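Lab notebook, bench 4. We co-purified these components, and the gel suggests they stay together. Before we commit to crystallization screens, I want a quick structural picture of the whole thing.
Request: model the full complex, all chains together.
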Amino acid sequence: MNGGCKHELPADPDWEQWLARHAPALLLFARQQARCEADAQDLVQEAVVESWRRSQGAPPPLGLVYATIRYRAIDLARRDERRALREVAARQDGPQCWFDSGVVERERNLLIQKAMSHLPKIYRDVVTLKVWGGLTFGQIAQALEIPANTAASRYRYGLMELRKLTKEVFA
Amino acid sequence: MNDQEQERYEAELRRTPPARLPEHFMARLLAAKPLAVPARAAPPQPAAGRFAWWSLWRWLAPAMALAAAGLLVGRAHFNPASSAEKKPLAAAYGLKADGVQVDEELVSSFDVVARLPGGEPVRFRCRKWRDQWVVTDKARGVEIEQSSPRVEVVPVRFETY
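Here is the predicted assembly.
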């Protein structure tokens, strides 16, 4: 993937730092919710902007942003008009790399991505939010609208499944 | 998988960070920073001292109004002076009636015929009366006279008429 992002926009340290820190994980989660890269990016942008607006310009709670991505993804999937366009776009999209791929680790990361995509969605969401989103089980529960205990058990089962699927990577 | 294995595995996974954002997307996000919506202006709060008075007044004013109303009602009911008002006028003014006349005077009388829903005729006898009473206190030379009209309606069976 590309290196650091260069931009010449009015500097806003809070906004920039927050995006630099959280946007990659948000996009990772959005990619798992959407069927194409364009939709995933739209989801992230809409959720981030909406969450910041709701929190009066202060950094919003992460759980809220992930929850907004999830709601928006559900809305998007329901919109029949956009479905056809999205499927066309999905066919045009190349495979997106979910993880940061240096030259050395590209193979390994692709295997993890493949394993993650084979993981049942209920497990994949929790594992993504916990491992790469850095959310607590309470925040995950808020984002996915499930009890915190369910989030914890799904995480444990998800990790076990993922471990089986990535045996060759972490042998 | 025990806890140690789980922690080790989590650490391995975290070594693989999410992909960085495409440059154009990062630029898009940076440009999309929402303008902070100003918080709704809160109603001006009075200073601490004023607030205390204001808060006190909010409760004191209705309480005082209630208390005043209660006093008026209580005075009307329990004040001995006012109880005189409830006495008959004559007694209230210390009159000693030595003559009382009660009279009724027939002013008019007429009959009205109506029909019941079943068609049966019914006759009503209507009478207008004037009731009158006169109280006199010869010692004081006072005479009080009052009269009031009264209407009397009596149904009468048609056959009995």
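The two ends of chain B are 112 Å apart (CA to CA). Worth comparing against the SEC data before the next meeting. The longest helix of chain B spans residues 48-78.
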